[in-house]
Amino acid sequence: MKENKTSIFNKMNDTNLLLAITIVIFFLMYIGAVLFQGGGFSKPQMFFNILNANAALIITACGMSIVMISGGIDISVGGVVALVSMCCAVYLDKTESPNLLVSVLIAIGIGLAYGLVQGFLVAVLDIQPFIVSLAGMFFARGMTTIVNTAPFNVENQDFVALKDTRVNVPFLGSYNKKGIYVPAYIEIGVIVALLVVILLFVVLRWTKLGRSFYAVGGNKQSALMMGINVRRTKFLSHLICSTLAGIGGYVYFLHVGSGSASHAMGMEMNAIASSIIGGTLLTGGVGNIIGTFFGVLSLSTIQNIVASAGLDEAWWTGITIAAMLCLFLLIQSVVMAQKKKAIKA
Amino acid sequence: MNETTLLKMRGIDKSFPGVRALQQVDFTLNKGEIHALMGENGAGKSTLIKVLTGVYPKDAGTIELEGEGEVSIHSPQDAQNLGISTVYQEITLCPNLTVAENMFIGRGKGAFTNWKEMNADADKLLQSLDIPARATQQLSNCSIAVQQMVAIARAVDMDCKVLILDEPTSSLDEQEVEKLFGLMRDLKAMGVGIIFVTHFLDQVYEVCDKITVLRDGQLVGEYEIKDLPRVQLVAKMLGKEMDDLSDIKGESDEYKGNDAGEIVFEAEGLVSDAGIKPFDFHIRKGEVNGFTGLLGSGRSECVRAIFGADRVLGGKVKVHGKEVKINKPIDAMKNGIAYLPEDRKVDGIIGDLSVRDNIILALQVMKGFFKPFTKAQAKAFADEYIEKLNIKTASADKPIKALSGGNQQKVILARWLLMHPEYLILDEPTRGIDVGTKVAIQKLVLELASQGMSVTFISSETDEMLRTCSRLVVMRDRKVVGELSGDDLTQNKIMATIAGGE
Fold first, then answer.
1. Which architecture does CATH list for A2-344?
2. Which of B14, B146, B155, B212 could connect to B22 by a Cys-Cys bridge, CB 3.0–4.6 Å?
3. Which CATH class is domain B5-228?
4. What pLDDT digit, counting tens, does each position of A233-264 carry?
5. How far apart are CA B8 and CA A193, in angstroms?
6. What is the ipTM of this complex?
7. Record: contact A15-B77, CB cut-off 8 A
8. What is the pTM of this model?
């Protein structure tokens, strides 16, 4: 048994090991929810609803993972999401003959601009990413209020049509009380999120840029000595993260259909938590996009379990998430310690 | 340029503000040669290497490479492109990536990573160099020696003609060193020129063909290994000719208490995790003794083990004949042992605290943090020692970082003297301070001993040790290789013992 363990540890690198832990825990948790809570969880649509509600978080968390793998952090993403929703809402509702495509470009543009500025400050001027994105967060929240103070719903018809577009998932529907077949569905945002996950997975795994993120996060000095352009790598990590925050902002906007200065409060923290649950190390160099995806799912599944258990108050959710984060980190550190032991032996 | 000459550095000059680090240094490397670059600390070895690898620009001189003629190297990247690769003491690879990635990242064209091809190439190279690692292994899963070899493999694969190994063996055990030497010999057979920087004499005589010795930024000479016996090498590194006798044993009163000669501290088979071999050691009441040896021979590691500053792995320790456990510095302090560390910036001073707080720090720890001294007490303690040791500071409230190096050293000394230790360990107390303070500290050591304190004194300058110590423990390659006292305390004897072997 012990020998067997050693060989598994030796075969897997840190990233894959943490990913495996995340996926196993997610499935255990979900199966547990199905068995003990029954009701909603036994229907596939419950799962898709989790996806629908969290598509934006998946996208921003993926960006966050990239920055964290490179050894940085970006706490401005929640602010960017709010700013994007507000700007797009104002554009679609308060200008003459708005165009949906332009609103998408606005979202991506805001993200890009954020990435350029923050990436420049972090990579070229060598300012701590935490400080830079803290300033970015305050700036985004402030700007959102300046653009429009009061929250409001968007009634533009094209937009509402897009917002209500449902993509049916074959085979996984269910019958309602009257015996009518109700197909399972996902929203447009989920498709965007899945595309982002796949794209980033490929980038991290098979491109030189992706591997540079790991190298820089693993050891900046060594990466430099091995001929990697560390500044460029850091810059691009922030550019990708902020741009994804812009796209995530639009997906968020598409889900809620309104602009508000209080949108996506604390989303950056959820993104960080998801990345960590997904096996990304805060110290950099280790992480996986698939893990982040499952991290988001785990986080929101636990929220749903708490809610359907009737413990609806916000503080219950907070406490459970805190407990779960601790649990994940504990398991991660225990497994990593075991691995070190196994290698030494 | 000769046909077999690979690298020719001529008349290299390099100055830093206040220091002439290199003066007219020549260095020549041939194809298929392992060439040791030797010298004590500050001799200019690393400066020469950094000039060669483009980390520092040179002030004057020429560098010629085979096939390239005279070259100018402005960055490590330039050096690499010219086929000069360096493997440093600390491993400059990414522990979180695979072995193959570490060999190939940052090289080649195209945006994508072809794992299959990369792993195959890596495995081929690992096999040809006989490195026991798989391409897909995560680097941190490999032993340090293998990691070091992967770094070398990376360098070799980049068509390197000149391979610089900067103290690659300092964190390896004997078997690992053997493996590394095997690899070096293979490379040598392939015609690579290797510059090997190390502090280990045995290793030099095992693998090297030639030795270039530097001292104080100047070239002492280039020698064939067979023409330079160890004693000569040590003499050349230290800058003392064998017959240059300097018997200047200090005149001082010996301690004459009733308990003179009693063994204060005794260690048997003491060993720590810092890589020293188990050693025996004792010190008597009122005695001044010392550890000597070349830099990196394990002098500091020994006293750190005595004080519990490194993790003690085994051995018996007795204080006044009674067996005690010393696992942490506080255990040693409770047994009346005080230690003044080698690097005061890292281990000693707390820069932003005042001189007074720095002085009373250790005593406060002994007393417990929840029983603070009154202001008046602290002031009395501080003032007493500021006067006693003649510490030059505007006031006891000044932050210690505002003081000169010599005065900082005195503050730390005051900290330990305040505890009235029975046994005081001074590790390089005179490094980097002016001559006047050096003499003052040496005098103080002898004075303390005459009052009954036992002192262990370590210094890179043999003169100083001879002047203060009545017994010297000699170390080589992390082993105690001899003990000298009485008439044997001469430069010649010390050098002969350090050189050992033949």
1. Orthogonal Bundle (1.10)
2. B14
3. alpha beta
4. 999 999 999 999 999 999 999 999 888 888 88
5. 59
6. 0.79
7. no
8. 0.72
